[in-house]
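Q: Hi! New to this. If I give you a protein sequence and the SMILES for nicotinamide-adenine-dinucleotide, can you show me the bound structure?
A: Yes, paste them in.
Q: Okay, here:
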Amino acid sequence: MPGFEFRTVPTIVCRPGAAKNLAAIAAPSLNGAQRVLVVTDRGVRGAGLLDAALASFDDAGVETRVYDQVVADPPEDVVLACAAAGREFGAQAVLGFGGGSPMDTAKVVALLLGGTQKLEDMYGMNRAAVPRLPLALVPTTAGTGSEVTSVAVITTGETSKRGIAAPALYADLAVLDADLTLGLPEHVTAATGIDAMVHAIEAYTGKRFKNPVSDALALAAMRRLHGALERACADGSDRAARADMLLGAMLAGQAFSNSPVGGVHAMAYPLGGIFHVPHGLSNSVVLPPVLRFNAPAAETLYSELAQNIGLATSSAALIEEMERIADAVGIERRLSQLGVSHNDIPRMAEDVAANDRLLPNNPREMTYDDIVAMYEEIL
Ligand SMILES: NC(=O)c1ccc[n+]([C@@H]2O[C@H](COP(=O)([O-])OP(=O)(O)OC[C@H]3O[C@@H](n4cnc5c(N)ncnc54)[C@H](O)[C@@H]3O)[C@@H](O)[C@H]2O)c1
Ligand SMILES: [Fe+2]
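A: Thanks. Here is the predicted structure of the protein with nicotinamide-adenine-dinucleotide bound:
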């Protein structure tokens, strides 16, 4: 067996209600910082999710400055504006609090504030480098797993999504408080939950970096997510289902951070970048055709994934089940429902074909023509 490397965040605290004691939980990982930049978005702040956490910093005598202007699929100007706010504040540490968009922004801002590297020099694999400011992440969606990944995805220019992937992006602390996800709307729960399942599937079938640890995490993640997604969608206040979703998404994050995602994410990116389709929804829509395309090259692995969640041991069973789940939780299945037309497909496919970070991980080689055919299949 070829060797492998595995990395993750050094401290993970997983406890319902943890956000209420965030200052005490985070103090050791944030090196006792007295000025903490809190990175979030208006939805999360407006829902009151931050209140208890901020009060805990207040009580501990730690000054916070909240930057709440993050938007979905964060563009570069938001990242730079957030960094400027942190610099002006004299931030000594960064706290990302929200879904993948605030967490990814926080990760990059911690690098920008802690070192001298410019944003444009960070894109790609292993280009971003420490030093960075101490960094803690608190997810409020059960999807991206960004709290434990070494990845941040930024929208560059008008429409392209580019990734920064480097060990420097592993936070010092991830705090999982499932109570924060109780109010997540059904459609967001569904889409972000399917995103997490896609992370597990793509990590398990990754061509380059799949390894025994990422495999074990991906299988465990799939079992939890598969068992809880429909329950969390049907009853958002089901705390056990919410806890399983958050933990499953984190396990999947650990898996794909070490065995990166492939064709599904590559095909989802242009939907987010060009059409602002939410990340989880983009992944969910392109999943079935990519699974069907990959099946000849990934029959054994897809069969193992199917068996792992109690289905028949075949790739067809996995594909059918993922389609059934999308229908059951009310996720759109066609690109035309998302505002994409036939004429958009060539530029989307060009974007995908140029993705040399993700396509090499896909179990089957994808050409431009293959990509066009898959988009056409779900138009
Ligand atoms: N870094 C990684 O490893 C990684 C992996 C996958 C995706 N991503 C990126 O993450 C982003 C998507 O993140 P996301 O899917 O978590 O969505 P998001 O962070 O964009 O949030 C989506 C919406 O949900 C709202 N929201 C969040 N938590 C809520 C809660 N508890 N209750 C009510 N509303 C809530 C937000 O206000 C926002 O309006 C994309 O930019 C994607 O590219 C990153
Ligand atoms: Fe994703």
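A: The chain has 13 helices and nine strands. Let me know if you'd like me to explain how to read the tokens.
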